[in-house]
Amino acid sequence: MIKARHHWLYVNFFRYYTRFMLRWHFRKVNMDADIEDKGLPILLIGNHFSWWDGFFANYLNDQVFSRKFHVMMLEEQLQKRMFLNKSGAFSIRKHSPSVVETIRYTRQLLSDQANLVTMYPQGAINSMFNYPVRFEKGPVKMISGLEQHVQVFFVIALIDYFSHTRPTVTLALREYDPGSGIQIQDMEQAFNRHLKDLIAQQKEQTG
Fold first, then answer.
1. How far, in Å, CA of 177 to CA of 161, rounded?
2. Residues 6+ apart with CB under 8 A from 114
3. For residue range 28-77, what is the model confidence (pLDDT) as tens digits?
4. Is the pLDDT of residue 174 over 60?
5. Are the C-beta atoms of 53 and 18 separated by less than 8 Å?
6. In terms of DSSP bridges, do strands 151-160 and 42-46 run parallel, antiparallel, or are they unpaired?
7. Which CATH superfamily is domain 8-203 in?
């Protein structure tokens, strides 16, 4: 696997580049983030529907959490864009023995309160309109066996144009309490309830 190698130059570049890109391409970024940061390591679980997803997570971290940013990527994709490794990207290779190393590394990251780890458990980019969202088993393996508490947040990004030429993106955060004995079905169902509620709210918007 490929571990994250943070370099201050790349980290700061992507922080400011993300702000610029969102302001340039989107009319507005709506933040729905009424949450309590308990000062614990953070696992961020997002919907994976676009090239923008990593930018959205990086922006949320910058605006809300201010942690050391990490994002899990497929190894074949990260190898093509190794510059992302210097801003916090690390790899997972599906159906490979190295998955065990990735799980161990992720748990290590989530034992440090300075860290935020972003994952997209759908495993691949899907249409924003796919419902319900289906998770792979990765998140459960990453959370189970952790030696200290971790705050888990769902983040759902939805895009609408309404009557404007540039879209508005809504980033909605909800905390998820994994409790003990977490099952993938429980996390998946909770995520889909959050998605369903957000879609209902979006339908009420007029732009």
1. 33
2. 41, 67, 68
3. 999 998 899 999 999 999 998 888 999 999 999 999 999 999 999 989 98
4. yes
5. no
6. parallel
7. Glycerol-3-phosphate (1)-acyltransferase (3.40.1130.10)
